[in-house]
Amino acid sequence: MTIEVDLKEIKSLLSEVNNKLDSLLEEKDTYALMALEEKSLKGFLEKEPDIYSLKDIKATKSPHCQKN
Predict the structure, then answer these.
(1) pTM (2 decimals)?
(2) Can you give the pLDDT at residue 47?
């Protein structure tokens, strides 16, 4: 391999690493915002009355969740 080919391969790999890093940083920002929203809404939602009681909620097992 020549130096030019090696450099192209290195540039390609660096570009791929940069894209993955950008994606990870974006995910980190998303998780941070979600945590902040959860924290800020917690106090608000705790003060709100429950709309439904446990008696009002009907839950059934999904056929997809049953063991074979």
Answers:
(1) 0.52
(2) 84
